[in-house]
Amino acid sequence: MSTDLTAKNPDPAPPGGGGKASGDGLLQLMLGGMRRNMRQYGMLMALGLIVVLFAVWSGGDLLLPRNVSNLVLQNSYILILAIGMMLVIIAGHIDLSVGSLTAFIGAMSAVLMVEHDLSWPLAVVLCLAVGAVAGSVQGFFIAYLGIPSFIVTLAGMLLFRGLTEIVLKGQTLGPFPKDLQKIANGFLPEVGPDTNYHNLTLLLGFALIAFVVLQEVRDRKRQQEFALDVPPVKLFLLKLVALVSAVLVVTLLLASYKGAPVVLLILGVLVVGFGYLMRNAVIGRHIYAIGGLRHRRQPARGQAVGREGQEGHLPGLPEHGHARGPGGPGLRRPLQRGLPQGGPQLRTGGHRGLVHRRRVDERRCRHGARRHHRRSGARRPEQRDEPRRHRHRLAAGHQGRGAAGRGRLRRLEQAQGRLLTPDR
């Protein structure tokens, strides 16, 4: 008995066809990854579209080095506040007092430095401490007293807005010390020979490119060590090229004007520090865990899940207030003075529809078994020893509305000789 094994072997691929097939497979993989991560890639695509549209409408002025530097300087305090907002959003809370607390911190820094002639380093440290204390107090009310974050931060918004008016007494204070203004408005100093570019900014950009490449390679190796799925080599190289190109373009734009702003370095340090805190520290793991629990199971009336949940809710708000500390003096940067009306109406929090969907899911989980038994005709455990006609009457009693429906259910239970508790 013999078998023809050669007939089972597939025909060899024609030369030159493998490259096309691999290219199509890479394209399909990229499209599939974008579909699975549309929420993340959608924001980047929307940002790219906005930049392209305004670059066209402004005749290319949007991407000029001078305009890019001005955008970084004017929006630095918002980016610093966004770091603290991230912690609150991940934990599943909302904060309406961001702008008011920022205005209060800025007003307090103006009073300390302008009226009391306090040195600006000490004033900044005190502002950071006040921001952390304010966040801790609000976090205590939310985590340990069970008051919803919406209510607590709404009260904080009104409180800090009033305190801002009281501290400044309705007047404008300024200007801030020159050294602090250099930090908020200044650029890195010139170093080295004249190359038509800012040399120190170029060195920082190349160092950032090396760090990004090493970080991506290390993450890929760690994923392979844990037998996780990793993208193909070509897609990985394409991602590296995109990241390096983005960093290089921003570096050249900044180096073509006056160099990197000092506040951009502060922002970079905060991003790296909070990123390490969230990935490697116990507090960061707790914040992620609490946010995941709130997405899976909404606690009753905004209460935390156990004592571990209470302790996990608390750290995010002091750090949010701590991030608003440098944001306060940074907000004074455009006019170099403290304003009673300072602090935009900044607030952060989850989407209202998400909370509604959580509550709907909770009700479905609670009443799903009863609806399933009613529709399928199956008998609930407390009805297995009852005649089928009584089961239908009991279901009809459940469907009654108001006092009449409750009365029918009560009379039916009395006729059966025992009390049945309806599912609620």
Show the helix and strand layout.
Elements (H helix, E strand, L loop, with lengths): L16 H20 L1 H20 L7 H10 L1 H15 L7 H18 L4 H24 L5 H20 L9 H8 L13 H27 L7 H23 L6 H19 L1 H15 L9 H8 L2 H16 L20 H25 L11 H12 L2 H15 L8
Helix pairs in contact: 1-2, 3-10, 4-11, 4-14, 5-6, 5-7, 5-14, 6-7, 6-14, 9-10, 11-12, 12-13, 16-17
Task: Describe the 3D structure.
The protein contains 17 helices and no strands. The protein is mostly helical and 424 residues long. The longest helix has 27 residues, at 199-225. 70% of the residues lie in helices and 0% in strands.
Order of helical and strand elements: HHHHHHHHHHHHHHHHH
Counted by DSSP, the helix tally is 17
Name the poorly predicted regions: 1-19, 299-312, 331-335, 347-361, 386-401, 418-424
Mean pLDDT: 75
* Strand segment tally: 0
Radius of gyration: 30 Å
Q: Please state the overall shape, judged from the principal axes of the Cα atoms.
A: globular
